[in-house]
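So, read this over?
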Amino acid sequence: MKFENTELEGVKIITPDVYCDERGNFFEIFQAEKYREMGMKDNFVQDNQSFSKYRTIRGLHYQVGEYAQGKLIHIIQGKILDVVVDVRFGSPTFGKYISIELSDNDQKFIWIPAGFAHGFSVLSDTATVFYKCTAVYSPSHERGIIYNDQTLSIDWKVVSPHVSEKDNNHPELSEIQKDYIYK
């Protein structure tokens, strides 16, 4: 398993060792000791899975307080553009984002610690996304940033996206509360 740092401190791209033969393939998604060695000490307490159609955008979401979530994202089927935005006030990369295409072909994962907003767009006909979370979902602790925030200028690689009413009503980055302070 290979762990790569990104320009956003703490966010990592993980490439598993994939073992292939005539039957198919096998790889580890999570192995606690390997993740701890890379400094990822959080425990996972909830697993989620979403199924989405082409041009869907989900996000940008994050949770705060005692329900702040780290997320380990994996693509079971399809292809997405995964986007991570730093929402830690005072961070050298506050308001910056990274995007990476993830698919069932490359089997990469992305680790997103608390303090970052997360979203994705679906680039294939459909996509099934699985993610492990370090805190349970709490509607009252959920926050978000509007996906088309002009200051972020994210290229989601889709035209005329399908976006939920909730996601269409998130504030811009400049309007979010200081829920995370960089230390």
